[in-house]
């Protein structure tokens, strides 16, 4: 309700809104606490009418929270052993968020606008984070979900193929190649996480 109030009535301050988004992402992505997780997902679904006004900030906050969680110490499971939570759990949560934002759980997709470049890259970068997609099969599962969602969106908007995932990759192919192959943010980056994100982006591009 506070997020809706922020957009529909009176803006919260930037620190207030960022704190609220951070709290929502923590509640959703913390694999140890599932209490009221459905309520958080429903919150995202109820905000899907905001489209890019909300999702850009959400994807940015989600990426930052995923990065933070991935650097937390491994959980100790026995005296001489440690365990990192499986990334697929996080990946599945990202899938649920996408479904809620597109409202596909009710058999229809409400979103009718295109992703702009910034929004698409924020979503792609989140999906390609190694903590979300540790293995190619994890990445492909999420990509399949996103493909199906966007195909349904295209169908419900007069079979507008520009709304499909392949259309976005075709449109932003050069930017993806620049980011993942040429710039220091990609596979040439000294940062291991950025290198893996770039690798996963290229896998998506060639999918």
Task: Tell me what the structure shows.
With about 210 residues, this protein is mostly helical. It has one domain. Helices cover about 65% and strands about 5% of the residues. The protein is built from ten helices and two strands. A two-stranded antiparallel ribbon has the order 1-2. Helix 2 packs across helix 4. The longest helix has 21 residues.
The arrangement of helices and strands along the chain is HHHHEEHHHHHH
Q: What's the number of structural domains?
A: 1
> How big a fraction of the residues is strand?
under 5%
First-to-last CA distance: 39 Å
Main beta-sheet annotation:
2 strands, antiparallel
- Write down how many β-strands occur, each being a DSSP E stretch of 2 or more residues: 2
Structural class: mainly alpha
Strand order of the largest sheet: 1-2
Radius of gyration: 17 Å
Mean model confidence by pLDDT: 84
Question: Total number of helical segments?
Answer: 10
Q: Runs with pLDDT <50, length 5+? A: 84-88
Overall helicity: 55-70%
Shape: globular
Structure summary:
It is built from ten helices and two strands.
List keywords for this structure.
single chain, 207 residues, mainly alpha, two-stranded antiparallel sheet, 10 helices, 2 strands, 3% strand
């Amino acid at each position: 309700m506070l997020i809706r109030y922020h957009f529909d009535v009176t803006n919260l301050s930037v620190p207030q809104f960022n704190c609220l988004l951070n709290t929502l992402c923590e509640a959703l992505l913390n694999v140890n606490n599932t209490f009221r997780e459905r309520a958080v997902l429903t919150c995202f679904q109820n905000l899907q009418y905001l489209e890019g006004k909300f999702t850009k900030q959400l994807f940015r906050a989600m990426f930052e929270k995923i990065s933070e969680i991935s650097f937390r110490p491994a959980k100790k499971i026995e005296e001489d052993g440690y365990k990192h939570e499986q990334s697929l759990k996080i990946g599945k949560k990202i899938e649920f968020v996408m479904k809620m934002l597109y409202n596909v759980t009710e058999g229809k997709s409400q979103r009718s606008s295109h992703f702009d470049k910034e929004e698409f890259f924020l979503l792609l970068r989140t999906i390609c984070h190694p903590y979300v997609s540790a293995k190619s099969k994890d990445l492909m599962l999420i990509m399949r979900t996103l493909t199906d969602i966007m195909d349904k969106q295209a169908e419900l908007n007069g079979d507008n193929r520009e709304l499909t995932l392949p259309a976005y990759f075709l449109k932003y192919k050069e930017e993806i190649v620049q980011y993942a192959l040429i710039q220091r943010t990609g596979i040439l980056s000294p940062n291991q996480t950025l290198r893996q994100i770039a690798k996963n982006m290229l896998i998506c591009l060639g999918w």
